Amino acid sequence: xxxxxxxxxxxxxxxxxxxxxxxxxxxxxxxxxxxxxxxxxxxxxxxxxxxxxxxxxxxxxxxxxxxxxxxxxxxxxxxxxxxxxxxxxxxxxxxxxxxxxxxxxxxxxxxxxxxxxxxxxxxxxxxxxxxxxxxxxxxxxxxxxxxxxxxxxxxxxxxxxxxxxxxxxxxxxxxxxxxxxxxxxxxxxxxxxxxxx
Length: 197
Hints:
alpha+beta, Cyclic Phosphodiesterase, Chain: A, five-stranded antiparallel β-sheet, 9 strands, 30% helix
C-alpha cells in the first residue's frame, strides 16, 4: 500500500468487532439518524474498539512498530468481552461522544493489555492517553442539542438503549490499523494482526 505524499500514515491499535455485534448495533445507530443535524453518526462497519491512537507515524517506522507490539500482545490470553448499554462522554446531559459500553469477564485483561501496550509505546516516543475507558463510538455531537433534539436523545438513551445487550465475543487478535480520511468518511485498513496466546 503506497504512503501518502508526506510519507506518514495515521495509525491506531484496535480490536475488530464480529459481524453479529456490528449488526446488532445497527438499530441504535439507525435511531440516532433522526438527530444527524446535531450528531455525526458512526457507520456500523467502521466501529471498532480503539486501544491506542498513534497519530501520524512515519511509514519507515511501521516495521519497528509491529515488532514492538507483537511480544506484548502475545503474552496475553484471549479476552471474553460483551457489548452492553449506551452512554455519553462526559454525560448524557452534556454529550460530546455517544458510545456503547464494553464489559465482560475479559475486561480486566483488556485493561492490562492496553496499559502494557501504552508503557511500551511511550518508551518509543508515542504520546499515550492517560485514561482508558473501553467503548465503541456510536456518534460525535457536532453542535449543542436543545429542546426537541435533547428530548429525542433522552428517549434514545433512557427509553430504548441504556441497558441493551449487543452480544458477547472472544478477542483472539489485535490489529495495527491505518485510517485514511476522505469525503465519504474514514477508510480503515489492517496493516498487521497480532494473535493473543
